[in-house]
């Protein structure tokens, strides 16, 4: 089930600039968010971590009239350069839709996680938000809004999600600490907890197809979460429609987080 966002979106971001990090391709959650922000009137700035993503991103950026800049969040010099490139730009919205873990860590048990794999997942998927907030602080407008993408595996055991669940728990805690820190400037930050959506990153989780089937069959709305569901919720958090909301984890998962254990024993 899909919702046509191109004609429904109110222009709640007119005259505003939104930096979207994490568009890998047209299936990315960040792609849907960027498209919705553009429909809402925002100027877009997009980032790419490497040449392969740049190749896919450039045509999209051109279509949207967006700036397109490099930033591998594992590299402090990339983040500093991004901040320098954006000198004179006032950022009203920042989208953190970045995560990574080695495929080997997204199967089996968490006890098999390597030290290096743990550090990699936490660095890319959580510390990157801190580093970005640190270096981009002078570019963030008073009243700027930040959204970071998370998943329910942060608080519940989801088979094979493993170290990424730990990274998302850390990310959500980071969002709360940042909310307290930036709140006095009128700036807000929230986490958006999406249901499973078939993207490049998600396909790295062992058994992801089964997760999708289970979600569709059991979620209260009896359907999968769509890219547009996530984009619309992000637009709410990135605009003044959510004024007064900060430090929260907002679920956009067709209700799946409500469910307790399924009784299978009579
Ligand atoms: P995606 O399209 O694969 O996006 C993930 C992005 O992170 C890619 O652009 C990826 O680039 C980028 N990235 C990885 N390492 C990076 C680095 N060092 N520097 C900069 N960027 C880097 O997958 P997605 O599902 O839309 O993921 C977006 C966010 O949503 C993630 O935080 C994910 O955990 C979260 N989320 C996803 C789901 C879901 O089911 N899809 C559900 C809940 C939350 P490369 O392609 O080069 O690696």
Strand portion, in percent? 15-25%
Q: Number of domains in the coordinates?
A: 1
Radius of gyration: 18 Å
Task: Identify the overall geometry.
Answer: globular
Number of discrete helical segments = 7
Looking at this structure, what is the CATH superfamily? Answer: NAD(P)-binding Rossmann-like Domain
Q: SSE order, as H and E?
A: EHEHEHEHEHEHHE
Within the largest sheet, what's the order of strands?
3-2-1-4-5-6-7
Compute the separation of the termini in Å.
34 Å
The CATH top-level class label: Alpha Beta
Portion in helices: 25-40%
Biggest sheet character: 7 strands, parallel
Enumerate the spans where pLDDT stays under 50 for 5 or more consecutive residues.
none
What binds here, in terms of ligands, is: NADP nicotinamide-adenine-dinucleotide phosphate
Overall pLDDT score: 95
How many DSSP E strands?
7
Describe, in plain words, how this protein is organized in 3D.
- This protein is an alpha/beta fold.
- It has one domain (17-196, 226-252): 3-Layer(aba) Sandwich (Rossmann fold).
- 38% of the residues lie in helices and 16% in strands.
- The protein contains seven helices and seven strands, in the order βαβαβαβαβαβααβ.
- It has helices spanning 29-39, 51-64, 76-85, 115-136, 162-182, 208-218, 227-238, and strands at residues 17-21, 43-48, 67-70, 91-96, 140-150, 188-194, 249-252.
- It has a seven-stranded parallel sheet, with helices on both faces.
- Helix 4 links the parallel strand 4 and strand 5 (140-150).
- It starts with 16 loop residues before the first strand and ends in a 14-residue tail after the last strand.
- The structure holds NADP nicotinamide-adenine-dinucleotide phosphate (NAP).
